[in-house]
Amino acid sequence: MRTEIEKEFLLRAIDAIERDIIILSPQYRILAANRFAREKHGSDIIGKTCHEVFDHGSHCDDCPVNTVLRTKLPFLGKKKRRRNDPIQGLTCYPVFFDNQIEFLLMVDFNPPQLNQLEEELHRSNEFLRNLIMSAVDGVIAADKTGKIFIFNEAAAEVSGYSIEEALEKLYIQEIYPAGGAYDIMRVLRMEEYGGKGKLKRYHVDILSKEGRPVPISLYAAIVYDGEREVATIGFFHDMRERLQMKKELEQIQLQLLQSEKMAALGKLAAGVAHQINNPLGGITLFAKLLLEEYTLPDGAGDDVNRILRDAQRCKETVKELLEFSRQTRQVMRPSDLNRALNRTLFLLESQTLFQNIEIVKHLEADLPLVNADVQQLGHVFMNIILNAAQAMAGKGRLTLKSYPLPDEQRICIEISDT
Fold first, then answer.
1. What is the maximum alpha-carbon separation in the chain?
2. Strand, coil or helix: what is 129?
3. Cβ atoms of 29 and 47 closer than 8 Å
4. Which single residue of 138, 164, 165, 388 could bond 154 by disulfide (Cβ 3.0 to 4.6 Å)?
5. Pick from 67, 26, 113, 85: nearest CA to 77
6. pTM of the full structure
7. How confident is residue 242, by pLDDT bands cut at 50, 70 and 90?
């Protein structure tokens, strides 16, 4: 038995504790309370039921007193004391007499600092969630079975799955092509790709909801609990736009190379043309002198006339080469597209590549003039016609058509090969 002094010390110690300490009967009546509880809830709480004091209106469905009365074991958990209170830690101990619960001791053990820590933790979790959800790159995390438990908006946009759909029923194995998830795990466990358990800038395809492959750049990691693997998390960037830009840049580079090639060809043609013009002038002059100043044997006059005709043809070819090779700024002016096509054919049709190619022309007469840079159009026509000849390996039919479109504002040029 305790002495009166001991009892007094115990009562004073209990009253000094700034937490709720309440003694309840098995009928939910408050039998006693420490000073802190009486000041907090009112000095008239003795004799009232706990649900009256804590404004529950009736017995709680998750009442800790019920739990202790049913199990005869201490209760340790969390509960709202009042309807609008934050959730707090609560203990409820049974006190026995003759193997029956005589009363229950209820203690609020949730200090204000703990509430503050929980609130800060909640805010931190919300901030982290918002950070992940608003990330511009896709974020996906999955447990060891592959069940997805993090799936942000960027991942939804790239994959086509909604966030709810992914979190409810999607497994990481379905995101990758057959066996792809296992390949990722295999390289994750290697040292070569960023260290064991890490994967950096790994290019791989994922499958959209419609089954289309989507190229991504993946950063991934294994999440460990000690030495045990518990989850994986991946951050990935959609590479479609970047790859498309790369493809377009490669095409632009090819076009620039082609332009440089055409420019070099033009300069070469200009140099050759100027070199040929002088001897051509001499050939034409002396051929004409032969005809005018000498009496030529039978048939010799015909041969000299052939020399003159061929020299004139060479002169026309040189003229076209010079026209083709002019490196001038872009000039838009009314142009005859049929003439541009014919000039291009004139330069090409006598080449070896075209000896076994039949050229068929359906060029509509009296086409209206088109505002265009005829020199650049000539380069375009030459490229297309050369491509056609090369595609046919120098044997086939090349067909060229020109005609006005019904709106009478545009002209169509068709170049086709067999």
1. 162
2. helix
3. yes
4. 138
5. 67
6. 0.43
7. confident
The answer for residues whose C-beta is within 8 angstroms of residue 287's C-beta and 6 or more apart is 304, 307, 308, 311
Rounded Cα gap, residues 48 and 102, in angstroms: 17
Helix (H) or strand (E) holding 380: helix 374-391
211 is written with which tokens? Answer: 């089954």
Q: Helix, strand, or coil here: 1?
A: coil
Which residue in 403, 262, 281 sits closest to 344, CA to CA? 262
114 token code pair: 């703990």
Sort 49 into a burial class: Cβ within 10 Å, 0-12 / 13-18 / 19+: middle
Report residue 227: phi and psi, to 5°: -100, -5
* d(C-alpha 206, C-alpha 24), whole Å: 61
Residues 97-108 have a mean pLDDT of: 88
Counting every residue written for the chain, the total comes to 418
Query: Degrees (nearest 5) of the Cα angle 272, 275, 281?
Result: 125
Structure tokens at 183: 């390949």
* Bridge-based pairing state of the strands 148-151 and 138-143: antiparallel
CA dihedral sign of residues 65, 67, 71, 77? negative
Residue the block writes with tokens 């790159």:
137
Identify the DSSP state of 93.
E
What's the rounded Cα separation, in Å, for the pair 95 and 389? 104
Total Cβ atoms within 10 A of residue 326? 11
At residue 402, the pLDDT reads 94
Q: Which helix (H) or strand (E) holds 220?
A: strand 213-225
pLDDT of residue 81: 52
Q: 173 vs 69, 101, 210, 318, 354, CA distance in Å?
A: 49, 55, 15, 68, 57
Tokens of 317: 């070819």
